[in-house]
Every structure is written in C-alpha cells, then in structure tokens.
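Board notes (copied after class):
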Amino acid sequence: MDTEHFHRRRLPHLYYNEGIYFVTYRLFGSIPQNKLDKLQNEINSAEDEEQKRVFKKYDALLDKAENQVFHLKNPLIAEACKNSIMFFDKKDIDVICYCIMPNHVHLAFELLTKIKLVGDIMASIKRYSAKSANEILNTKGKFWQEESFDRLVRDEKELYNIIKYVLLNPVNAGLVEDYKDWKYTYCKKEYLVL
C-alpha cells in the first residue's frame, strides 16, 4: 500500500491510494435517527473484529421497512444510480460487484488511480446520481446520506465473503428467491462466486 489517508466524521475512514474497497451508501433518511444514534454508539466502541457484527445490524436496519424512503425502487432512479457507478468503471475504479437495493447500495471495486481517494470517487458517484434522481423526483436537497460505510478489503477470503453478501442481499431481504432475479445486481464474471 502506498499512501495512507485517515479521517473521521461519524465513522472512521482509512483510505490508501490503492486496493479493493467495499462501500455501502444509503438514501438520506433511510434509517430512523434514534436507531442510527444507538448504532453509532456501538460503532464508536467497536474493535476491528466487531465491525462486521455492527455492519450486519446496520444493514438489517436498511432492510426493514419501517419509516424509510425507497426511491431506488423507481427503475429510472435505479438506472441513474447504476449509470453513475459504471461511468467510473475502467477509469478510476474497476467495478467488481454491486447491488442497488430499494434504499441503499453495496459496491465493491478496485482502485485504478493513485490520484483520487475513495471518498472523492464516492462523492462523484453520489453527486451524479443525486442530481439525476432529484430531477426525476422533481425535488431538491439531500438525496444520499453524506457519509458511507467503507472498508478496505484485507484478503481474498474477505473479498469472496463480500461478493457473496452483496449478491445475496436481495435474497436475504426477502425481495427475490434467486439473486439472478434482482435486476440491479452485477458481478464481474471472473469474480462470480455463486
């Protein structure tokens, strides 16, 4: 790993200018604030080994249907989200897999550039799709939650588990029986694990 960049907002972010990353980003207002605050306290006290457990709780909140917005159910918005991800494929990132759920997105990619940081690339992806979505909805304002959950993938086993997790997310959320039936799931052929 070349250059390390660390910053903390509500979540800690450790970026290198190379590597494979797993990112989850969600719609603004997709988790009730009181539940988010409780989860934030767990994140702040979690050790590295405990982060997976906390992330599963976070993702379970996203998959529940209480007090949430689901703009990504709209095919036009989901398509704009897909296009915003794939615009950067083979330029700044190599997209490994993604799943666009009704209120959040899971994305795994490898950095191709040593110039842009993960946070900068994600800001561009989110900005493009937010602009398109707000035009479709005829609204203004926040579309995505500012901060994303991101993790540097440590090894091949972790990448395998992440890809499996991403592909099976719509199945585990009860939206389809077979991951192939979810229209907005993608995995590069050489990484397909199911």
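Comment from the instructor: The domain at 4-191 is CATH 3.30.70.1290 (Alpha-Beta Plaits). Residues 5-13 have pLDDT under 50 and may be disordered.
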